[in-house]
């Protein structure tokens, strides 16, 4: 079986009430092809959204102070390093040095008072290997 197609069960992150609209986000550990990393979840206009905690500019975590992902307005996600700004509902760059690149979304679900995330082919639970990306196809001569 191809390991990239293995379905994974939802992994709880937090209780729904722990996530305030426009407030602090909650980090959770993940494994990626580049090694251990974190995802984070925030609530925006009532809906939770989760992303890999990796800025599209340099690839470091967005929050200098743990869980502080929103800007002062509470309407945009802000990278504390150089000020890249992202739309919280899509992860798309909304300004600054991300220059059109976006955050990598992580699938989540809010049900029964719990928010949970779903691993996929390249974002896995900590301790699980993430398969290397397939090499690019070489066109025939
Ligand atoms: S690392 Fe995020 S804006 Fe530069």
User: Any ligands, ions or cofactors bound here, and which?
Assistant: FE2/S2 (inorganic) cluster
Summarize the main sheet: 3 strands, antiparallel
Q: List how many beta strands DSSP finds.
A: 9
Helix content: under 10%
Q: Per the principal axes of the C-alpha atoms, what is the gross shape? A: globular
- List segments where confidence is low: pLDDT < 50 over at least 5 consecutive residues: 1-5
- CATH top level assignment: Mainly Beta
CATH superfamily: Rieske [2Fe-2S] iron-sulphur domain
Average pLDDT metric: 91
| % residues in beta strands | 25-35%
Q: Looking at CATH, which topology would you report?
A: Rieske Iron-sulfur Protein
Q: What is the count of structural domains?
A: 1
Strand order of the largest sheet: 1-9-8
Report on this model:
- There is one protein chain.
- The strands form three sheets. Strands 1-9-8 form a three-stranded antiparallel beta sheet, with no helix packed on it.
- Helix content is about 0%, strand content about 30%.
- The N terminus is likely disordered.
- The protein has about 140 residues and is an all-beta fold.
- Strand 3 and strand 4 form a beta hairpin.
- The protein is built from no helices and nine strands.
- The radius of gyration is 16 Å and the shape is globular.
- The protein has one domain: 3-layer Sandwich (Rieske Iron-sulfur Protein).
- The structure holds FE2/S2 (inorganic) cluster (FES).
- The site of FE2/S2 (inorganic) cluster has 11 residues, from loops.
């Amino acid at each position: 079986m191809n390991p990239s197609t293995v379905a994974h069960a939802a992994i709880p992150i937090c209780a729904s009430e722990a996530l305030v609209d426009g407030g602090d986000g909650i980090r959770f550990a993940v494994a990626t092809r580049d090694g251990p990393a974190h995802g984070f979840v925030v609530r925006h206009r009532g809906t939770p959204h989760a992303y890999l905690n990796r800025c599209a500019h340099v690839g470091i975590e967005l929050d200098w102070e743990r869980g502080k992902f929103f800007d002062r307005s509470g309407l945009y996600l802000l990278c504390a390093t150089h000020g890249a700004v992202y739309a919280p509902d899509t992860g798309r760059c909304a300004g600054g040095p991300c220059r059109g690149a976006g955050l990598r979304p992580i699938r989540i679900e809010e049900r029964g008072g719990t928010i949970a995330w779903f691993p996929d082919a390249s974002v896995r639970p900590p301790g699980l290997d993430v398969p290397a990306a397939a090499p690019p196809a070489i066109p025939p001569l």
